[in-house]
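Protocol step 4 of 6: structure prediction from sequence.
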Amino acid sequence: MLEKRAPKAPDARQLTNEWNLKVYAGVISGLMAFTVRPFPGLPSVGHAIVVFLYCAINLIFCFTNLEFNKPSNFAARFGWMSTGNIVLACFLGLKNTPLALFASFSYDGLNIFHQLVGYTAVAQMVFHAICYMKWEDMKNNWGKILEPENWEGVAAGFAMVVLMMGFLRRLGYEIFYISHIIGVILTLVFLGLHRPYWVWKICIASLFAACIWAIDRAIRAWRLIFNFVDNRATLQALPNGGVKLISSKQLAWASPGSHCFVWIPGIRPFETHPFTIVSNTSSGLELIMKSHSGFTKSAYNYAVSNPGASLRVSFDGPYGSFPDLARYDRIVLIAGGSGATFTFGLAATVLDSLGPDSTQFVDFIWAVKTKENLVWFSEQIAKLKTHASHVSLSLHVTSDTEGICSDETLVSDTEISPNIVSMAEITEKSDSDESPPSTDEKLQARPAKVNEMHTAHGVKYEKLRAEAMIGEAIQATKSDGRVLIASCGPETLMKAVSAAATRYMTPDGPSLDIHCESFGW
């Protein structure tokens, strides 16, 4: 008969290894929690560290091995540094960045560094001009500044100031886009002419930057031409200024949650605009956009005035990167307003990949100001409800009060845009051969449909409390599990999500990753 032995007590080496592992896990967890914390003016502390290192390197290169007794030395050094940063800014601004071949980088994640490098190049250009003028003033040789090569340098400087006006994107994307294209071309042309001799190397740097920029534009142009063939789109107006675009062709290699640039020549022939992909199936690509001004306002007006009409359309993309969703046991998706275009896309990707034995779970949290915004994604919400065992759905209306929409509100909406229909109405029309309902019938039907959806999906008329909901999701996850917290929406919401998530990064808890989609295109 076999004798049972008592379990062997762990020896000192085993205890030491376990202790070291806990210390290592604590240090890593602490560093991750520290680097993802929000930082004033920047997305996170990690971004701030990179910015600090970049600025320190620039200062070292500007003043190392430099004779301080001549302003001309400063002028030359600042000129070289500005040229180098112009090339780096062009590289970081590429939509088809080569960095994507080596890591999960996308141009939108590099955009903040693209802006920083651009501003640095402009500042160094200003110092270059000041030091050069000081040097010529000391020699009483102002006539040299009037030489053609130096005038071309002045022109390059003014073109760089045009490039620096990236803040104009807040006033209008069209103004920003056009000024940026013109600024890039003029800067690189006049920079090369400023010092045109090969021995000075400036024209080589200018030519290199122009080549990589031109190649990137050529790739984008080819995609637009390729996706333009036999591709049409229908625009449908949604309540509160929403527009739903459905194309006739699927966009290759595009997954929901990524984004693409949309070209509709029938609305704006010389503009492309970025939008997040909500769905991309064999029946076509689906986007939802909120009208503000410019292109989106024109698209909304067209949808209202021409219901059911189709337009030629093309896409440049896909772009964007996010973590591998299959690696996580629980995924918390938090969105505010139109940021749900991103989170609905991720949710669709997760649900479409679920296997029969999958234990993956999604917490879907969405906050909107008004009740009718929920109609924008009624089909996607219904899909989430069909996966109740894998999805927890939480919808928040922050401005409206609970109850049925008033007739006065609906009448005012319809008078402005009488052709607006809800997504529920669109679905019903596609399933029925009956004639379309009149405007009066829509007025009578919409309150019931909107409130019917509210009752069915448990809409909460309260503010979104991100920290509490994140805490509940993490507490429901095993300590050895992996959790992804992804958010998209207003900057205040994403900062609140990041701050809340970092509080739950502990060595004894589940592994946490944070992804914030900032729409920084």
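Step 5 (inspection) to follow. Residues 325-426+449-517 form a domain with the Rossmann fold fold (CATH 3.40.50.80).
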